[in-house]
Amino acid sequence: MSAVLDNHGHAGDHAHDGHGHHGPTGWRRWVFATNHKDIGTLYLLFSFTMLMVGGILALLIRAELFQPGLQLVNPELFNQLTTMHGLIMVFGAIMPAFVGFANWMIPLQIGASDMAFARMNNFSFWLMIPAALMLVSSFFMPGGAPAAGWTLYAPLTLQMGPSMDAGIFAMHILGASSIMGSINIIVTILNMRAPGMTLMKMPMFAWTWLITAYLLIAVMPVLAGAITMTLTDRHFGTSFFNPAGGGDPVMYQHIFWFFGHPEVYIMILPAFGIISQIVPAFARKKLFGYASMVYATSSIAILSFIVWAHHMFTTGMPVTGQLFFMYATMLISVPTAVKIFNWVATMWRGSMTFETPMLFAVGFIFVFTMGGFTGLILAMAPIDIQLQDTYYVVAHFHYVLVAGSLFSMFAGVYYWLPKWTGVMYSETRGQIHFWGSLITFNITFFPMHFLGLAGMPRRYADYPMQFADFNAIASVGALGFGLMQVFFFLAVVVPAMRGKGAKAPAKPWDGAEGLEWEVPSPAPFHTFENPPKLDATATRVIG
């Protein structure tokens, strides 16, 4: 098969390939990386590091809430922890991880030799390091880290110490990185697909990322505007959000959530893409309703722009506004339900096996659906007004973000790890990681629904005795969940990176389809230097 190059290297060293190129070695290979696979690896390792940092903050929060009263931290530090946990997880862990998947898999899936702008790709990764360092070091600045909540609402942001400025700067840099990454992904997908691969023959993961990249370019400048106005309010005498000067703090919320709601779909659409690759592979069937999946994804992206104010039902908006945002939010659950239906229909009467990627995919569908239902409940304005800023909301968005984004990423890692490293992970350890994560996740976040319904507010370091039992359960679950992720890294990722395990074939999964399985495992340093030609059915490469 002429389209696929031989790999004369061994696991971990892809410096030599069929065309005799000499790839960089040593530290230069990583610092000056322009190869999409190396940059993808860097993104994934960076995001896991940030996941651990954000996880430590989460465990400090849960340790404080283990029982009533103040145990470990004062309320001010508690608010710093909740704020930084949110910012680090969203901008440091989830988004970079999906960009890592995009870098690794999109060129392989569409038969491109690399990303369109290889040096910009390097730059958009390395921008994240100073931003992450600035975020984390804000704890050591005078007055401590920002404590305004991850949403950075005015007027709290106008009262914060110097760390707020560092946080704003970090968000600007991360936003610039996201925009560059998105431009790269869009140009790669639109211009570098293999001959014969029309848009409607593209793998679903490439589709979801194409749509996500457009979303990112649309909304990151909105966030930049909101935080720049905050900055000028703080230092340059403007009064965008300061009522004393004629400003409006609620305007900040409108601007922030016009970014923030599409943002939550930015964090879930690539997850949908990953699940849409895995379910057909392990059901050994074609994805049910491919076209409807593409249209549903596009619908979600478009609708995400007209639902932002459902985060603001308690700001005193007119009833007409409440009704519009309530119905629009209910409407967005329809294309999401189409996706869930399609995954279940794909599994229906398939020859299913439950290796770890499929376990995480099914776990994702189960738990994400629960998160979707609580979202539908919160869409009802009268109910939301009661539940606003309670632990019910915390439970809801952790069900869609942890069990949504994170579980799908685990599914993707197990699915593509043999292609990345050339070795098979230990199935037993993968199953331990799945069941441990699923059970401890539910122990942590399911009780929060009850806490929220009983009226326990978010972002409080102390609470009345009536909430003690559920909080204790949640804290124990959180510790277990954190330990499962350490286990995942040490028992699954590290051995695979060291090349320990059974050698992986080019196509380790029976039902897997797509160009990425046509190249050897591990994927050679350079792939598809001559674009592969696809035949009419777009499933096989013609030599």
Properties at a glance:
two-stranded antiparallel ribbon; metal-binding; 543 residues; Cyt_c_oxidase_su1_bac; mainly alpha; globular; 16 helices; membrane; Cytochrome c oxidase subunit 1; respiratory chain
Tell me what the structure shows.
Helix 7 packs antiparallel against helix 8, helix 7 runs parallel beside helix 10 (290-303) and helix 9 (269-283) packs parallel to helix 11 (319-347). The protein has helices at residues 26-31, 36-64, 75-110, 118-126, 128-137, 163-191, 204-235, 249-266, 269-283, 290-303, 319-347, 356-379, 381-387, 391-421, 427-453, 468-497; strands at 533-534, 541-542. The chain is an all-alpha fold and 543 residues long. It has a two-stranded antiparallel ribbon. Strand 1 (533-534) and strand 2 (541-542) form a beta hairpin. It is built from 16 helices and two strands. Mean pLDDT is 94; it is low at 1-20. This is Cytochrome c oxidase subunit 1. Its main location: membrane. Pathway: Energy metabolism; oxidative phosphorylation.
Helix and strand content put the structural class at mainly alpha
Helix tally equals 16
Q: Hey, roughly how much beta strand do the residues contain? A: under 5%
Q: How many strands, which pairing sense, and closed or not: the largest β-sheet?
A: 2 strands, antiparallel
Helix content: 55-70%
Rg is 23 Å
Spatial strand order of the main sheet = 1-2
The backbone outline, from C-alpha atoms, is globular
Domain Cytochrome oxidase subunit I profile: 21-535
Family: Belongs to the heme-copper respiratory oxidase family.
Catalytic activity: 4 Fe(II)-[cytochrome c] + O2 + 8 H(+)(in) = 4 Fe(III)-[cytochrome c] + 2 H2O + 4 H(+)(out)
Protein name: Cytochrome c oxidase subunit 1
